Amino acid sequence: MDIRKVLVADAVDKACVDLLKENDIEVDCKYKLPKQQLIEEITNYDGIIVRSDTKVTADIIKAGSKLKVIGRAGAGVDNIDINAASKKNILVLNTPGGNAISACELTCALIANLARNVYPGAESLKQGKWDRKLYTGHELYGKTLAIIGLGRIGKEVAIRMQSWGMKTIGYDPIVSAEEAATFNVDHMDLEQIWPLADYITVHTPLIPQTRNLINKKVFDTCKKGIRVINVARGGIISEEDLLDALKDGRCGGAGLDVYEQEPP
């Protein structure tokens, strides 16, 4: 495959650009292009690299007369029209695990934040209050963490939170119970998981089977005060149902790094 010129449409690590240049590939970095401008630009390139911001739609793919490859700096490819790319024999590549440690560390930070009410405590202090007892929070030791998606990120989260004394349970349709046991996760069906969890963190792609996976029915089934974390994809947790659960106390807190609708 002859790749001479690549458009980087979303901000990526400098090492990615350097690697391309070291292989004599011309690289242009043009971020946050409006769709119409991207349609006009893509005609000049053999390849495009995106993260999650840029949506590589059928219109963009159709306009890419030279396009041979679409690279996704990350795991999920839900922002790329796979069918349109396949029809034009355009290769779609992703980098699963490329940001696994970063996503894992953010997940762990959000879990600790929720346990210790870091954000509301800080906001209270900014208002000149000293509500120490109100924001005491609780220990993570002995609590049950449910991990939905036991790939590399889910596995890394499990290993780290076990060191905090959390019991880890999880579900993944691909990872077997035997494999999950090698990193001390009890593999269960989702219906078994919901009533047991004190915290739920999701690490799955956004596909039809996972859209609104965490919904009203789940919040009704979980312990009152369940806390949820999502650094994977907006849409895995139903935002409407989450808001209702936060308002009535069924959910005790949410740590979100992704949303169904995000700024361009």
Describe the structure.
The protein has 264 residues and is α/β, with parallel strands linked by helices. It folds into two domains: 5-94, NAD(P)-binding Rossmann-like Domain (Rossmann fold, 3-Layer(aba) Sandwich); 100-256, NAD(P)-binding Rossmann-like Domain (Rossmann fold), CATH 3.40.50. Helix content is 34%, strand content 18%. The chain is built from eleven helices and eleven strands. It has helices at residues 14-22, 35-41, 58-63, 82-87, 100-116, 118-126, 152-162, 177-181, 190-193, 216-221, 239-248, and strands spanning 5-8, 26-29, 47-50, 69-72, 91-94, 144-148, 167-171, 186-187, 199-202, 226-230, 251-256. The strands form two sheets. The chain has a six-stranded parallel β-sheet with strand order 8-7-6-9-10-11. A five-stranded parallel β-sheet has the order 2-1-3-4-5. It is elongated.
